[in-house]
Amino acid sequence: MLRRWCAAGGLLLTACANPTPPSPNPTAASPPVVFGTAIATVTETPRPTQKTLRLWVQPEFDPKADTPAGAELLGQLQRFEQINSGTQVEVRVKRALGAGGMIDSIRTGLAAAPGALPDVIAIDAHNLDAAAADDFILRLDTLVNPDIMADYYPFALESGSRNGNLMGLPFAADALVAAYATTAYAQPPTSWATVLESAFPVIIPAADPESLFAVQQYLSLGGSLWDRSEAAALNTTVLTELLDYYAAARTAGVLTKNTLDFGSGAETWSAYRELRAPLVITSAHSYLQDSALAANTGAGPVPTQTGKPYVLAEVWSYALVNTDMARESGAWELLDWLVQPQNMGAWALKASYLPPRADAVASWPPEAPADFAHLVLAAAHPKPDAETLAVIGPLLGEAVRNVIRGHATTSAAARNVIKEITAD
What we know:
alpha/beta, 11-stranded mixed beta sheet, two-stranded antiparallel ribbon
């Protein structure tokens, strides 16, 4: 069946093997930036500085001048400085976790050098949890204009909130999506039935430790991840229904043991580019990195049983650090500037992330996959917390793999998952 698909008109990537990004225009002036070992000062030319604002970012958002996304962020910061005369922005890159990481450095700085703390931080959900729990960051509810709140996709504001308070404004999102060859699927494959009927092979990230794809499918069936005491728990009936789908896909030859080798969306996207399957479950980030190069390729929310899209998305947010009151107004102006639709949209497109504001998506140029972004973001729900996934993910993943291998019935695999979760 794979051979028939390949011969049907062919999936063509204009750069089939790891395309090289276009070289920067050698005549274009790069943003003048002075780099330290971990700090970028974005001021274009020296001028009297009355206020210095510090922005700390995780490594994936390092504003390197030699990358499109980095140059875009540096340009936005330079424009902010020009608009706000006498203000200088310093950017420091901090690893996400561990000693010397984002939260550890803030905790240490509060005791030893509060004047060196950041004003704005760009962080993932785990660090937002920690920063909010330790009261390192400010509530944003009273600062954010209602029009801005209304423009965010609902899942994004939920993702940026803790205990009913808005603690971070999301600026980037990623999610598992379906990428498919239009030579194999004339219409987007929105339902499991369509996928099974096609009999084309599908590659999923079955080796993902969090089993996020299986969790997403389980939740789309109406399942829950917690019991009334908020302990991790799964519904046996819904879980069995999910595993029945994997068993049917194995019987139809849609899912084979080969899919057990893939642990991430980046890996499944590489398999798609190698023509190993006409439908893969990948990350939006991986797809967006290559979307301009992929011919005969469509993408959208992953198929569900009902055909109604359901997506789990993770976000990264800007937050205000609870430091010097005299700096907080300037810090808010910087954060507000970075999440303006044109700024968020331009940076997200160059960084290959989904911008979680509707007006930011609308700001993308006509050739960009804005329809794809809107479909995914409109169907998105917050990704479950890491602690829950650490409990459920490995057990659910083992059950899925055993069913695909034919080593367990769906009912037995479901019972074993429930038993192990209960035992914990």
